[in-house]
Amino acid sequence: MKVAFATDDGIRVNAHFGQSPMFAIYNVTKRGGELVELRKLPEIQHQDESGKIDSRLEAVEDCTLIFIMQIGASAAAKVTRRKIMPVKVPLGSSIEEQVKRLVEMLQGKPPMWLAKVLRAEEEEEADGIHG
User: Fold this and answer.
1) Is pTM, for the whole model, over 0.90?
2) Which domain holds residue 73?
3) N or C: which end of the chain has fewer CB within 10 A?
């Protein structure tokens, strides 16, 4: 599954969803996680809150999870409507550590929130094959 991390340095989760200058995109499986790309957002002057949220949503629309430091209520609603699960982590959490924890969860018995996300992802893939 693809996972996004809100970051300003590509190393730590240290950004609020609406202000994140970029997202580190990882592919995470039971076997491990690897960096796919760093998606930098263009700097748009005088962009309103809705525009900031929408541009960030577009940047992570192919992801299943997004790790952030903070996310506002309206942004969280938009993210979850797109079937992306926001995951809040402490400021400055290492992306590598978060990836490692996620891999361990996938290898063991995933917590309820993650199991639900994985089920939804499997159903979408099945629909894509049969639809």
Assistant:
1) yes
2) 2-130
3) C
